[in-house]
Amino acid sequence: MSQPATSSSALILDGSDITLEQLIDVAEGRREVRLTSDAAFRARIEAGPALLERLLEEEGVVYGVTTGYGDSVTRAVQGAEDLEALPRHLYTFHGCGMGADLDVVSSRAVVMVRLVSLCRGVSGVSMALLERLVWLLNHDILPRIPEEGSVGASGDLTPLSYVAAVLCGEREVWVRPGAGQPHALRPTAEVFAAHGLTPYVLRPKEGLALMNGTAVMTALAALAYGRTCYLSRLSARITALSVQALEGNPYHFDADLFAAKPHPGQARVAQWLRDDLAHPAAPEVDATPINSPRLQDRYSTRCAPHVIGVVEDSLSWWRSFLETELNSANDNPLIDVEAGKILHGGHFYGGHVAMVMDSLKTAVANLADLLDRQLALLVDSRYNRGLPSNLSGATPERAPLNHGYKAVQIGASAWTAEALKLTMPASVFSRSTECHNQDKVSMGTIAARDALRVLTLVEQVAAATLHAAVQGSEQRADITGQAATPPRLAAFTRELREDIAPLEEDRGLEADLRLLCARIRERHWALSAGEANA
Mean pLDDT over residues 152-179, rounded? Predict the structure, then answer.
């Protein structure tokens, strides 16, 4: 997923909008990036720094160019030497990031998001700076960015300082030693020298333009969005397998029923379940399944469209917020070349991203709770309608020694609890920082990091429940006959069995679960024509 892209798939940047899917394609290494050769675009970009140069000659006052940063706005910076040194000081004193490093895909997304924003042409940067960012992406040389240290306004200053410092030949970059090898850290100066590249010298405002924006939170949020789209569809597939294994009532997903409560995403999930459970050879029957002692199934299967549907119905507004942020100019100040004005404001505030991520992590954590409850039904012989206890595949003689999915269900419960615990909204924990200049901040980057952690935990729950649900549906087929399995679920089971063997005698399932998590992350299974695949 992170191999360098080929030039034939290049995404041309000209200052117009891109989609979340295009961003994710670049982040995951499927597309290379180019700047348009259009003369009007290039002239618009270069007009920004030209206006700044003219204002400097006229002794104009521009925040972050002729003044200090933040609360130091009252300090005047004068003289050519100090004007050149100021952006270096900005990325230098912000070099205090902590925590784990962003992975390579996330780092690539950050660089791309910042590039898209600067291509809007109102940030006062030169074409040369844009070309350096493109060079990093297309050479697969990416800044090491610690994930902790941003409060989400004045943007992602500390993590983005690592992008600015790398452009200037400092700190460290991720490079791939050879084809098929993992990225490794090397000093930026050493890598630039090997490529014959001299460190970039930031012009006035360029340090601030690079660092004073929402690129980190937006990049992480876009990746979270892509993972959520796939996880939502997969949750419906797992639910269908659970319904099949438990001899559930497929008429809980009737189209006329969902027409009475017409949330579009909820209805879409019900349609997916109908499609997965459809059996062309089955005769029409009453709404109560044959041999079922229950008229209505338990909520974790019956109400699955209502749980997954919240995610599906939220995707459109999440996308709207994130794509608007992605395609915005969000540094400060902005340069209005046509009017000859410097616009001082607060577009670095990441409130929209924070709200999306706080909402997304709650909706996604509910998927874990749903699947965890399905797994609890599958393994419990009091509720699984005749399947073996803990879905053990052992022979009757070996049954006393074998415990099947007992520990996996404990693990899924632990991962679900942790995911639910992390749904505390980050956006309400604003802190006053930087001498009370940044006295209301978004916490958007923390919200995005929380969302990614929740997604990882939910993917683990999905992997565990998927593993068990496939086992349970096969055991149901052994009882009722192979022909009773709906064709779509049978085909999916055959595909999954290419990776994962049935659980017969007890074995450690860590390797299986890690492989399934990797398959989920890479969106391995084409779940249906209607798959929401980012």
Answer: 95
